[in-house]
Automatic annotation (TrEMBL):
It comes from the Bacteria. The keyword Acyltransferase does not apply. PROSITE patterns: AA_TRANSFER_CLASS_1. It catalyses: L-aspartate + 2-oxoglutarate = oxaloacetate + L-glutamate. Signal peptide: none annotated. NCBIfam families: PRK06107.1 (NF004769). Residues 34-394 form the Aminotransferase class I/classII large domain. This is Aminotransferase. Keywords: Aminotransferase, Pyridoxal phosphate, Transferase. Belongs to the class-I pyridoxal-phosphate-dependent aminotransferase family. It is an enzyme of class 2 (transferase). It comes from Shinella yambaruensis. GO terms for molecular function: transaminase activity. Its cofactor is pyridoxal 5'-phosphate.
Length: 402
């Protein structure tokens, strides 16, 4: 019998490790285990009621048909307004594209541009999907390690050293998943100075967490800090994280018109457009009162402060305080080489997260999945009660090591 063989682009990539870990935690819970799940990559808040009402109203108005490939005029206007209001950036309507999540937009941007092994610089630790998205589109990810001593950030020297004549993209993600690290204006200007010397390099600026921001000074982005680069930057964002709308699947980008046109051409053959109802909800969320964003960020900040303090008090662990997003990326170097109660030595961060899962029922993700060890990622997009319980259990688990 003829068995199915997937195309090589499928065998070259892996299933997202974060989806796999969340599924494992869910399975264990379903099997009756008491698991505190710290793997979740989405807000624990419900979508705001007024956003839901905007979606109902769109349905009642009959906005239930295909829309323009590049999004409804209302959503495009809302996106342009948001970038102008928050970042001072001006974009025209033909510089905006929309998709089924920022993830789809990032994938389409690479599909629209990468071929013949073109190189994409991916600073590590990175969001797990970047390298596989590059590989699936016949590109070569060039991983540049950004150690904790550098605040998990790319330095101008490391960027310069990574650029070759084949470099097409640099991916910048700030605040970052998994570290929450973000660049200051001065740091962006210094990276910009390198990029200005290499006109073949474009920048994918994944700003999906830019409203989950804890610092007093406003968040900035490369396109605003270095205006001379704006035409080489695809600024991607979406409503998933800021407005607790992960399931509505709306992401978007702003950037040079020829690239946006190429993305829209692919989109016209791939999905025609994202959900009309979700677009109406997203347009509303971006233009309405922003108190949900302010209130939820205050809650994340309180959780961040609590969890960082608890983790930093555990001998063997240390945690850099994130600037934004809703993840912690503690360093677990101090537990490597120690013995679990049953005698096995913890050799890697994967061993440590498996020990946490089996030993005390805390689900976390190993730093190796994000390209930097020995670390682990904890999501704080969960209740304070769960965070307190997770910290108690991690403390117990580490204390039991020999
Ligand atoms: N970029 C980063 C860094 C993310 O963490 C995520 C979601 N996990 C996305 C992009 C995609 O978000 P969405 O597709 O929901 O817009």
């Amino acid at each position: 019998m003829n068995t199915f063989t997937p195309a090589s682009r499928v065998s070259r990539i892996k299933v997202s490790p974060s989806s796999a870990a969340s599924a494992r935690a869910r399975d264990l819970k379903a099997a009756g285990r008491d698991i505190v799940d710290m793997t979740v990559g989405e807000p624990d808040f419900d979508t705001p009621d007024d956003v839901k009402a905007a979606a109902h109203a769109a349905i009642d108005r009959g906005e239930t048909k295909y829309t323009a490939v590049n999004g409804t005029p209302a959503l495009r206007r809302a996106i342009i307004g948001d970038f102008k209001r928050r970042l001072g950036l001006d974009y025209a309507e033909n510089e905006i594209c929309v998709g089924g999540g920022a993830k789809q937009i990032l994938f389409l941007a690479l599909m629209a541009s990468v071929e013949n092994g073109a190189e994409v610089i991916v600073p590590a630790p990175y969001w797990v999907s970047y390298p596989d998205m590059v590989i699936a589109n016949d590109g070569t990810p060039v991983i540049v390690e950004c150690p904790e001593a550098q605040g998990f950030k790319l330095t101008p020297a490391a960027l310069e050293a990574a650029i070759t004549p084949k470099t097409l993209w640099l991916i910048l993600n700030a605040p970052s998943n998994p570290t929450g690290a973000a660049y200051s204006r001065a740091e962006l200007e210094a990276l910009g100075a390198v990029l200005l010397r290499h006109p073949q390099v474009f920048v994918l600026s994944d700003d999906i967490y830019d409203q989950v921001w804890f610092r007093d000074e406003p968040m900035t982005t490369l396109a605003a800090a270095v205006p001379a680069l704006k035409d080489r930057i695809l600024l991607t964002n979406g409503v998933s994280k800021s407005y607790a709308m992960t399931g509505w699947r709306i992401g978007y980008a702003a950037g040079p018109a020829p690239l946006v046109a190429a993305i829209n051409k692919l989109q016209s053959q791939m999905s025609s457009c994202p959900s009309s109802v979700s677009q109406a909800a997203a347009a509303y969320a971006l233009s309405a009162d922003q108190s949900f964003v302010r209130d939820s960020v205050a809650v994340y900040k309180e959780r961040r402060d609590y969890a960082c303090a608890r983790l930093n008090a555990i001998p063997g662990l240390s945690c850099t305080v994130p600037d934004g997003a809703f993840y912690l990326f503690p360093n677990c170097a101090g537990v490597i080489g120690r013995r679990m109660p049953e005698g096995k030595v913890i050799e890697t961060d994967l061993d440590f997260v498996l020990y946490l899962l089996d030993g005390v029922g805390v689900a976390a993700l190993q730093g190796a999945a994000y390209g930097l060890s020995p670390h682990f990622r904890l999501s704080i997009a969960t209740s304070m009660e769960a965070i307190r319980e997770a910290c108690d259990r991690i403390e117990r688990a580490v204390a039991a090591l020999r």
